């Protein structure tokens, strides 16, 4: 299987974007430079544009009555490139992921699988062994779970409220009306969460997180959401629902490439990092949602001695308790 082919490179893609626009209307050199910066690199215009504008690549025609403006010399727009065997193989692997299948109706999923039936998956789900994940993940293949997931997607797309029957931790089911604005996935818990504004006193104001596995009934409200609520919802996306007042303060030694590893591992969190000259280390403040507290705690401990938790005191106490419990499991009760 060929991994790389030059016709799929960013340079070919950039020229293709230029020709697409030049086929619709005349395009200026400045516009072509902007396309080069968007789809390739800053210096791409220095090598690509002279070949296009001076005729080395006879793909553009200069307009006499408009300086530095060109139109496409082709009688048709450039065709779409077919997917490579590697891309098809990767899509076939994704299509067999039960989480991927949640985003499609049964009819849509059948069309996807039929279109990929002749492709060998790049990998199988059985090829992965998750050593840091809880085993009570959501039941993605359950018909009711799939139905609820599709209902949530519809409400998100159509800006409608949801009427939800939700079972709490005590096993009590209650009815609530909520305006959904985001779906979250936790790789540690292997669960989907629904972020929404629960209705209170005739308005959608209570920011709430619901576990989809505990949804017992889910229907789209026949009424559209108020315009004011629709305007608010996009601003809530990718923001902590219940952000802690104090961030976790970490001291990163820099040993064993720990700084780069931490920045990559905690990239989904809001954080501020600065270098501390006296201690020759980095201090990193991480702001997080309380729903992710346990997951963040476990992730920090996975770095071992290269990361030290400095505060706050409440979080530091949780770290000490977790380390003590792990020690007792391995070596017995501390004397």
From TrEMBL:
**Alphabetized PROSITE patterns for the sequence:** WYL (PS52050)
Q: Which domain of life is it from?
A: Bacteria
Per its record, how is this protein called by name?
WYL domain-containing protein
Taxonomy of origin reads: Bacteria, Bacillati, Bacillota, Clostridia, Lachnospirales
């Amino acid at each position: 299987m060929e991994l790389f082919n030059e016709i799929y490179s960013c340079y070919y893609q950039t020229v293709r974007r230029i020709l697409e626009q030049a086929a619709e209307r005349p395009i200026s050199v400045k516009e072509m430079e902007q396309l080069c910066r968007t789809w390739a690199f800053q210096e791409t215009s220095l090598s690509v544009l002279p070949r296009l504008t001076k005729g080395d690549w006879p793909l553009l025609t200069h307009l006499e009555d408009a300086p530095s403006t060109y139109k496409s010399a082709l009688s048709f727009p450039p065709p779409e490139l077919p997917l490579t065997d590697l891309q098809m193989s990767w899509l076939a692997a994704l299509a067999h992921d039960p989480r991927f299948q949640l985003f499609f109706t049964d009819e849509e999923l059948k069309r996807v699988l039929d279109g990929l039936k002749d492709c060998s998956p790049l990998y199988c789900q059985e090829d992965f062994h998750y050593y840091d994940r809880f085993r009570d993940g959501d039941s993605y293949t359950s018909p009711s779970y799939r139905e609820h997931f599709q209902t949530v997607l519809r409400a998100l797309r159509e800006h409608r409220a949801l009427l939800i029957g939700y079972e709490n931790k005590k096993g009590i089911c209650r009815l609530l009306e909520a305006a959904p604005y985001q779906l979250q996935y936790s790789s540690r818990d292997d669960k989907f969460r629904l972020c929404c504004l629960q209705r209170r006193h005739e308005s959608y104001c209570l920011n709430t997180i619901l576990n989809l596995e505990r949804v017992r009934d889910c229907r789209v409200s026949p009424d559209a959401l108020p315009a004011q609520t629709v305007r608010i919802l996009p601003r809530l996306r990718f923001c902590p629902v219940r952000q802690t007042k104090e961030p976790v303060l970490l001291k990163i030694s820099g040993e064993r490439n720990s700084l780069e590893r931490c920045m990559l591992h905690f990239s989904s969190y809001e954080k501020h990092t600065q270098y501390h000259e006296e201690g020759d280390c980095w201090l990193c403040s991480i702001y997080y949602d309380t729903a992710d507290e346990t997951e963040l705690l476990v992730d920090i401990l996975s770095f071992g001695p290269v990361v030290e938790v400095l505060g706050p005191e409440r979080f530091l106490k949780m770290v000490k308790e977790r380390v003590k419990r792990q020690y007792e499991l391995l070596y017995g009760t501390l004397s």
